[in-house]
Amino acid sequence: MGTIDSFEQLSQRFLHHFAINKRYPKTASYLFTVVQREHESLRDYVQRFSEAVLEVPHVNPELLASIMQQNLRRGRFHESIAGKPPATLDELLVRAEKYIHIEETSDVRAMTPSKRRVEEESRSKRSLNDRHRDRGCGPALDTTRYTPLNAPCAEILAVAERQGIVQWPLQMRKNPKRMKSDKYCLFHKDRGHSREECLHLKDEIEKLIRRGYLKEYVDRNNRPGEGNSRPPSRAT
């Protein structure tokens, strides 16, 4: 498994628990064995737990949150959720993001000056990419309509991820207004809109279909042009 460089990439694999996956016979009890190791970072643990979720079909999101909470090593994040347990997986991931940032900031401060400079330059480059992404600078589709689908976007995305054909979005720039929203998108790993409303998710699936992938998810019962319209892009 390759290295994950941004927090939203750590959690996007949780999309798989919405997909139908009959290849793996493991049950939810298997996830209780995926505990955080003594020197394992929170980022690495969330990545490893998300990989384990892929092997267990049809797990309730609330149960996933409870299992992950129990498996965490004792520390500041564990104390936080023990005092106020998250009600859903989405809430758990939002709170984990904060503590991953705290943990990694502390690690950077402990680095030698040269290593710290490299890490800060890397973060600065990611921040610049975020600003371009937030301003709508990504490539636009050459149509105003989506191909009609015969399955939910989350299920299709899970299949595409297993095939290794998904291009995941860059982390969005922090926005206090979005943090107040009760909507959450696992594709972007951020608040402000739901997965069902995510245009970038719909765009990614549309691009894959046009490249010849995921043809089994095209709704052949709809005539061409009957897909959902794409709202005009807006700069933020």
From TrEMBL:
<feature type="domain" description="Retrotransposon gag">
    <location>
        <begin position="4"/>
        <end position="62"/>
    </location>
</feature>
<dbReference type="InterPro" id="IPR005162">
    <property type="entry name" value="Retrotrans_gag_dom"/>
</dbReference>
<feature type="region of interest" description="Disordered">
    <location>
        <begin position="106"/>
        <end position="143"/>
    </location>
</feature>
<protein>
    <recommendedName>
        <fullName>Retrotransposon gag domain-containing protein</fullName>
    </recommendedName>
</protein>
<feature type="compositionally biased region" description="Basic and acidic residues">
    <location>
        <begin position="116"/>
        <end position="136"/>
    </location>
</feature>
<dbReference type="Pfam" id="PF03732">
    <property type="entry name" value="Retrotrans_gag"/>
</dbReference>
